[in-house]
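batch job 7 of whatever, protein = XdhC family protein
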Amino acid sequence: MRDVLDQLLAWWREGHPVGMGTVVATFRSAPRPPGAAMLVGPGAEGAPPVAVGSVSGGCVEGAVFDLASEVATTGRPVLERYGISDDDAFAVGLTCGGILDVFVERVDRAGFPDLDEVAADIAAGRPVAVATVVEHPDEAVVGRRLVVRPESPAPARPALAGARMDDAVTDDALGLLAGGLSETLTYGPDGERRGEGCRVFVSSFAPRPRMLVFGAIDFAAATARVGSFLGYRVTVCDARPVFATATRFPDADEVVTDWPHRYLAAEADAGRIDARTVVCVLTHDPKFDVPVLDLALRLDLAYVGAMGSRRTHDDRLARLRETGVPDDSLARLRSPIGLDLGARTPEETAISIAAEIVSARWGGSGESLTTTDGRIHHQGVARPLRYPP
């Protein structure tokens, strides 16, 4: 929903009912992840309805458009599964062989009265999750929502199918929110954890993960650009004020003049980094590199990489061992940074770094898909996180 939120909120504020299809589960090589959404809303005066967003990259958009148009009128939510038909290869389905479960619902002020509050949380970077019942024996329960925020009080009255379900979904949604994951959960009709018959989709809106780039060099500018494209909140930090300027790094969210290790320590103490944070040390200067890597390798971070030649890497490892960094922590260091793409320019090097970060996140091998078998899309592993207060 994040990608279509601005348009959804605009139609919601204008009082228009909107049909929204959301991917709530995927199987095999589905092209879009859970949470991908498509809206069907009013066109200009006298014009037909328009679609915003995508649930499949084109394979089943037409079918979802028709269904969302109908649901926007009737208000009756529908959970629909799309996949290849064994009987008719030209039936509505995914040519990639994947399967999508798409929940189609009407969104308006009456059905989602606190959409503006959820949108405000997302815009401010505050973690929030929306849990929606997508399947239940009682049709009246389908489509009910529960908004979950860390450390927020439980609703005064049951929002889903009773207090027991509210409690179970809240606990599970907080776990998914901490990992930045969106997922469909299964319960019994009254919220029994080991039961069946009820499915709840939890859409998590966690703050953007952070990328900390240390070293205000030309490679940092390209890395900041790619990091921003990948959805990271990018900070470039360097102790030299002549180089650490916003003009040189227009794609960074912030440029900080400080010693790298001092800045990283302050951010860690303030709780502003977490297990999704990636650190790229690009200075290849021991007086900057060693202190910040000494700290970074002791923190629970998603990725720590450092630029430099293999000779620089060997010298860096020796210096880090002298500071007391244990071998198991040193094994986490990606150095020389990036995948072997033969990169030479700053832009090519930034792609190499980004590819290694993506590979580390999802468990990819970094090999050409032509030479591999099995799944193309990896599932990744959820990691518990702590959010700042």
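notes: The longest helix spans residues 163-179.
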